[in-house]
Write a structure and sequence with these properties.
With 293 residues, the chain is of the alpha+beta class. It has a domain of 120 residues: Glucose Permease (Domain IIA) (Distorted Sandwich), CATH 2.70.70.10. The protein is built from 3 helices and 14 strands. Strands 3, 6, 7, 8, 9, 10, 11, 12, 13 and 14 form a 10-stranded antiparallel beta sheet that branches. It has a two-stranded antiparallel ribbon with strand order 1-2. A hairpin with a 3-residue loop joins β8 and β9. The chain binds zinc ion. Zinc ion binds next to loops.
Length: 293
């Protein structure tokens, strides 16, 4: 079948014309190509638009993430700085505590030296290992333990006076007030009135509450570390055997019972079963607790 032609006439303003003959099939083909091209153009534009939007969203998300990251880094570096400062502060605090502890430990030793009392502080086997001390922390712990043990011993040690009264008879050889011949006096006598309060000179456990012809009504306290105190000629005892006593607690009242010539307190200290002179233990109250720097 012959291709029918369509004649397209193009005229100018001057009236001159030109005719172009195009086959129908060719025209149809051209139309199909135009439709396909348009479709391609539209879908391409749509795809480009979609891609553009996605790209913009991604860029925005990246920006937000970058901001967050910057903030996190800032917080992190601040936290690190704070942590470092804390570590420094802690070290300084530790050093201060140790030096203060060291000072206190020296005070205790000084006081004990002045009294002339030897304190036996046993070494903890877990912490003995020669003179080498690994670090300050370990040294601090060691000092703390040592100071604690010192304090424990001192709490129990008989220190100071049991009564405020004047001393009427000292420890040692003297002329016996009853038979008028030389005898050994194993304690200190304090003047006082019957009924005056007698106080424990250190933490202790009541070892004995008794009465006999020599000591009269008496109390013996056990302080640990080999120390015992004896209180004699009391008018009344106010504690019971086995009772726990604290320093300063009233244990009885001054009296004139037993071998006694008048109201007074006989006070004795024993160490490892032997009587010792209580005088240096009484003087503790007079020692000033200052540190030499
Ligand atoms: Zn006496």
């Amino acid at each position: 079948m012959a291709d029918k032609k369509i004649h397209i006439i193009i005229t100018g303003e001057d009236g001159n014309g030109r005719a172009v003959a195009v086959g129908r099939n060719t025209l149809r083909n051209l139309f199909v190509i135009a439709v396909i091209a348009s479709a391609c153009l539209v879908s391409g534009t749509l795809a480009a638009l979609k891609y553009y939007h996605a790209n913009r969203e991604l860029a925005e998300q990246t920006r937000i993430l970058d901001t967050k990251l910057a903030r996190i880094s800032e917080v992190l570096s601040r936290t690190r700085a704070e942590r470092d400062q804390l570590a420094i502060d802690r070290e300084e605090l530790l050093e201060t505590s140790i030096s203060r502890l060291d000072e206190k430990s020296k005070v205790i030793q000084e006081v004990m030296d002045q009294i002339g009392i030897e304190i036996k502080v046993e070494d903890d086997p877990d912490h003995s290992g020669g003179p080498f001390i690994a670090d300050e922390r370990q040294y601090g712990e060691l000092l703390l333990e040592q100071t604690d043990r010192y304090l424990e011993v001192i709490r129990q040690m008989p220190l100071g006076r049991p009564v405020p009264g004047r001393i009427s008879s000292k420890y040692g050889r003297r002329t016996d007030p009853l038979v008028r011949r030389k005898a050994f006096h194993p304690g200190i006598d304090f003047r006082g009135r019957t009924g005056d309060r007698i106080r424990a000179t250190g933490d202790a456990i009541v070892k004995k509450v008794g009465r006999n012809n020599i000591l009269g009504r008496h109390v013996i306290l056990s302080h640990g570390n080999g120390y015992e105190t004896i209180f004699a000629h009391m008018s009344k005892t106010l504690v019971n055997k086995g009772e726990k006593i604290q320093r300063g607690q009233v244990i009885g009242l001054i009296g004139n019972t037993g071998r006694s010539t008048g109201s007074h307190l006989h006070y004795g200290i024993r160490r490892n079963g032997k009587s010792i002179d209580p005088m240096k233990y009484l003087r503790v109250a007079d020692i000033s607790l200052t540190v030499n720097r």
